[in-house]
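Weekly modeling sync, notes
Attendees: AB, CL, MP (scribe)

Item 1: holo prediction request
CL wants a bound-state model with phosphoric acid mono(formamide)ester before deciding which constructs to order. AB pointed out that an apo prediction alone won't tell us much about the pocket. Agreed to run with the ligand included and paste results into these notes for async review.

Input as submitted:
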Amino acid sequence: MTDNVISILDVEKNLKEILRRAGEMKKKQKNGESVRSLKDKSLAMIFEKPSTRTRISFEVGMTQLGGHALYLSPKDLQLGRGETIADTAKVLSRYVDGIMYRAFEHEMMVELAENSSVPVISGLDDKEHPCQILADFLTIREFKGGFDQKLVYIGDGNNVCHSLLLGAPIVGMDMIACTPEGYRPDDDIYKKAVELSEKYDTEISLHDKPKEAVKGADVIYTDVWISMGDEDEEEKRKKDFEGYQVNKELVDQADDEVIVMHCLPAHRGVEITSEVMDGPHSVVFDQAENRMHAQKGLMMELMG
Ligand code: CP
Ligand code: NVA
């Protein structure tokens, strides 16, 4: 494993070990056992975009492990006045033991990672959202008992879809990405996902008909149609994604035991109905909780 986790590919070799540790951390926390393996360590968290789950799960996770997390927005940093991301990385590396970064552009993430001498963890950028996928896999393992599953992603071929496509083969899961024309995952990501599916002997494919795609699905996954940064395209996207809503009619086409996932925040009534989100198949809040346990597992690997 590289010292940085800015793609789910960075944990290809020890994804299962991170999940094992995450499960163990969750169990210990539920039993009231404290684990202080990051005692006196600090995590800097730079957020260029808003966050509920990522911020709180990292911050509380660090506290539970005996460490400390600092929330930094560009407007509080000299970054907002033109100090470069490279210089910021070099300076932060002198103080802290790890940096979590939520960036608009993947290029900035790479630049931060290249100039940091402490581990860099992505908290999302325009290309991937690796920590989300760690939590998702922990959730799938909890609810389905393993990864011999078929996951059908419905919606935008965005950052979350990309990390799922790259991560699914690594854990041995089949995946279909069902997106409208024009919103497919990036070609280079899909190509890499196909390569991985050959390596790990899993199936991966693209689709554009939600009702057909979800037949036999063990997991239905969706995300917002309008990601952070896409707000200008709201009206166009709402039209282009017609027919891609995860509603009861769609869920009824899948396996009876299907679980429904969403990384949140959700736009209720847009990409997913409240009926489904609050319904018997939904595991979205377990998924949100698992962000913290998964990231504790990851931080212990990287910074412990
Ligand atoms: N899923 C997720 O990353 O949520 P936040 O944007 O609230 O961090
Ligand atoms: N695709 C969404 C994920 C939010 C956690 C976004 O980038 O806004």
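Recorded for review: The chain has twelve helices and nine strands.
Action items: CL to compare against the apo run; MP to circulate these notes.
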